[in-house]
Amino acid sequence: MELSGMSSCIFCPLLLLIIQLSFSFSLHEGNETDRLSLLAFKAQITDPLDALSSWNVSTHFCKWSGVICGHRHQRIVELNLQSSQLRGSLSPHIGNLSFLRVLDLEGNYFSRDIPQELGRLFRLQSLVLANNTFSGEIPVNISSCSNLLFLHLGSNNLTGKIPAQLGSLSKLGSFVLQFNNLVGDIPSSLGNLSSVQKFFWTKNYLRGGIPDSLGNLKRLKYFTADENDLSGTIPSSICNISSLALVSLEQNQLHGRLPPDLGLYLPNLAYLVISWNHLNGPIPATLSNASKFFFVDLSYNNLTGKIPDLASLPDLQKLLVHDNDLGNGEEDDLSFLHTLANSTNLVSLGMNDNNFGGVLPEIVSNFSTNLKRITFGRNQIHGSIPAEIGNLISLVALGLETNQLHGIIPSSIGKLQNLGVLRLDENKISGSIPSSLGNVTSLLEVGFAQNNLQGTIPASLGNWHKLLILDLSQNNLSGPIPKEVLGISSLSVLLDLHDNQLTGSLPSEVAWSVGESWISEGFQKQVIG
């Protein structure tokens, strides 16, 4: 028994030595595998900036540029060569970097297929290949990278379908595929990505419906799938994702009604863009429950009915609903405007091309001084323009064309020093053109055509030194055309004065032809008197 115990003790150091030698050999073998894999990677690319100049035999690979090794085992854990102008294909030997956690090659010129061998990188947490020219399909076996947190493949030339197998990546937090050529349906299996927070799929050729299963993604914050061919209705299950902050689905083929509970259970929703689709029905009254809204764009659809009360949206900056069928031509169609009085961050109201009736309320003049754009063109609005509209000192565009407005042009518009576009054409506006408008020297486009304007053209309009378009046609303007107006050198696109009562002669440098065009300083301008 003593001999047996003694022999065991004698062999203990020997066994320990064997284990140490075995570990050392294994470590050396692993290190050599990493080194050779990097050299194989380098062999398939060109390096115009010499970003890989340190990759040579005289330097340990852990000190090569873009390479980070683990402290304990000296194995490569990160390869980051973003924005290095590298060209070529991605070597399949990258799949031998078995300790790799981060592969970031964003902003280069890698082409050809993404190698299937990446599926062997079981420790990989971040795969960033965006902004290259990779082609081919997304490798199915990336689904084997079960620790993946970031999968960024945007801005490439990838084709084929989104692999359904990627739905097994339960740790994935960010999934970016935007600006590719992907086709097919959105796999319902992606509803299993329980950790995902970001879906960025803009500008592909994805089709079919938005799967109901996406309503299971309780951590999803950002969902963009603009400029695809998605069809069907917006599933009501989306309203279950209380974490949603941004939804952008513009330029698809979505139809049907907006979910009636759209704002009810989405307390964090701040950005909603579903323009350029085929949605119909009303804007849900629950929209006002999403109190963090700052950007809403529902334009270019077939929405009907009235715009609901928006008083609970204090952070609202942009409300764009133009090119729908909203409003009924009734007096209370614009009553929602009263509920925007406390939206102190309001920047843009886009209401063109609807059926809004009623009067533009005076309260508009008291809206946020941050307001830059008001466009209510091509509706059925009557009454007069609010007299104190000039309080909105940040306005760059005021569009009220093609309505039934009457009364006069408010002289307060002369206070709008930032105004670039002023469209009041095709209304029933009367009175004279206020000379105070000459103070608005930033104007690029002015349209007053087809009204009942009278009196003379103020010489002060000659201060519009940036003006490109001036249309005063089909009014009752009289008197001579001020030389100051004819002297606006920037007026290069359109000057239309036809169907007025203008008199006097034109300067000799102006080649005049009634009913046709005249040319001055190389520009063609319509002056039909």
From TrEMBL:
<dbReference type="Pfam" id="PF23598">
    <property type="entry name" value="LRR_14"/>
</dbReference>
<keyword id="KW-0547">Nucleotide-binding</keyword>
<keyword id="KW-0325">Glycoprotein</keyword>
<keyword id="KW-0472">Membrane</keyword>
<dbReference type="Pfam" id="PF08263">
    <property type="entry name" value="LRRNT_2"/>
</dbReference>
<keyword id="KW-0732">Signal</keyword>
<dbReference type="InterPro" id="IPR050647">
    <property type="entry name" value="Plant_LRR-RLKs"/>
</dbReference>
<keyword id="KW-0675">Receptor</keyword>
<dbReference type="InterPro" id="IPR013210">
    <property type="entry name" value="LRR_N_plant-typ"/>
</dbReference>
<feature type="signal peptide">
    <location>
        <begin position="1"/>
        <end position="24"/>
    </location>
</feature>
<dbReference type="InterPro" id="IPR032675">
    <property type="entry name" value="LRR_dom_sf"/>
</dbReference>
<keyword id="KW-1133">Transmembrane helix</keyword>
<feature type="domain" description="Leucine-rich repeat-containing N-terminal plant-type">
    <location>
        <begin position="32"/>
        <end position="69"/>
    </location>
</feature>
<keyword id="KW-0677">Repeat</keyword>
<dbReference type="InterPro" id="IPR055414">
    <property type="entry name" value="LRR_R13L4/SHOC2-like"/>
</dbReference>
<keyword id="KW-0067">ATP-binding</keyword>
<dbReference type="Pfam" id="PF00560">
    <property type="entry name" value="LRR_1"/>
</dbReference>
<protein>
    <submittedName>
        <fullName>Uncharacterized protein</fullName>
    </submittedName>
</protein>
<dbReference type="GO" id="GO:0005524">
    <property type="term" value="F:ATP binding"/>
</dbReference>
<keyword id="KW-0812">Transmembrane</keyword>
<feature type="domain" description="Disease resistance R13L4/SHOC-2-like LRR">
    <location>
        <begin position="76"/>
        <end position="278"/>
    </location>
</feature>
<dbReference type="InterPro" id="IPR001611">
    <property type="entry name" value="Leu-rich_rpt"/>
</dbReference>
<dbReference type="GO" id="GO:0016020">
    <property type="term" value="C:membrane"/>
</dbReference>
<keyword id="KW-0433">Leucine-rich repeat</keyword>
